[in-house]
Protein: starch synthase
Organism: Zunongwangia pacifica
Amino acid sequence: MHNFLFVASENDAIPHCKAGGMGDVIRDVPRQISQKGDTVHVVVPSYSRLHQNAKFISNLSFKLRGLDYLAEIYEVQPKKDFPGITHYVIHHPEIEAGDIAHIYHNDLNEPFYTDAIKYFIFCTAVAQAVKIKIFGDLDVIHLHDWHASMVLFLRRYHKDYTCLQDIRVIYSIHNLAIQGIRPFENNYSSVRNFFPEVDFNYDELRDRRYHDCINMMALGIRFADAVHTVSPSYKNDVLYPSNPPEFIGGEGLEEDLNQADREGRFIGILNGCNYRNIRRARKNNLYFNIASAIFKWLQQESKKYKSDFLAHTGEKVMPYLKRKPDFVCSSVARLTEQKFYFFKRSPEAFLEILDLLAEVNGIFILLGTGAPEYEELLRKISHEKKNFLFINGQSEDVIDSIYLETNLYFMPSLFEPCGISQMLAMRNGHPCLVHHTGGLIDTVKHLETGFVFDGNSYDKKVRNMVDSFKHVLNMFFEDKAKWRKIEQNAKKVRFTWEKSVDDYYKSLYKLPA
């Protein structure tokens, strides 16, 4: 039997601990590992809330900033119990809830200032927990994104945590664009301030663009025994420099990624999708669920600034309770440059898509929260266009209904390491229209399981996006046999965690599957 530790910032296996797709991975991969008879410990920060009503396990004592720190580790009850998996959270008063999903902070004036503090503390507490064998004797530690990479810093440089050197450490990249860049020194939220006694090598840690800073994503890439990203095509993309917006590649880390690739340490393995234990929505409940969610939000103090807009959206939903539209297109995503850059830069293209839908009694449902400038743009368009339902909130019931009842799932991501939404839509037999990038290349096959647009310049990409949408609508209304075949193909495709985790064992963990 092998013993694993997963270290991450999100974990959707426990309530209220997800902001994005990484939370799904941290939920699903341990479940697959446990089916092999191995044991998994999963640890995330408490964010000053997740430890409440949890089972206290131990105090964790360590030094930071030349001071004695005391953190606490708790065992948390998951949403569903699986044998061999234990979920933990680490509490310390400075590991605070953020403004993004009550997890991350959005420090506009000094990026990563608050998050670096809490993840410095979290990772040191994790290292201490490993040292005193809270998790037993570990075979593999699997770190996820920059938030967990400080464990590798401690492994390499800190005299108190040499025990980490005997354990294989894997580093997974979920979002290469968010790198956790912080100053080396002369700042409260700096490496030297938190680790004044550690003799580290500046050159090994230095960001290649900002020489007075550490790059936490680069740290993971440089020091892990294996580096993993979440699809083969995205792995190929990031070996080349970015040329935005036409191409998003290594984002300044391509030199480090190429070095890891030359050393045989860089591996692309497609994420899986869950096909069992699915939270299912009731059919024909989409518009009822939207209206119900909006009524709930209108009663919340935190939604006061959105109340007029939410009421406006609710009014638009009501007619569909009686008479459904003839075509439903949808998107569910965080409102960021990655997901909706094309809409922000070229709103006229999105308006053209909405006009095409209006001609066939079709609607576009977009659910998401995120960057204020994207929320404002989409609220404005929703006021202008009767057939655009912008649901500016988060609701599991609404999301499940969208995936169940949509005709076309639209995913125009500027870049996409893997993507889970297209898999969830295809699982329900719904074709997707996607941009030819990253993991979308590996999951959606043009005119077989869905539709793909591309172009060798930004203008061509946007034009092809609209033209592809026209083609989709034409096929849906004029060639039902071909549409049904694509639907059937989409539903048959399986991106299983069983296959992905077998590849993890072989290529990342170096263990018999």
About this structure: The radius of gyration is 23 Å. Residues 311 and 392 are 11 Å apart (CA to CA). The mean pLDDT is 96.
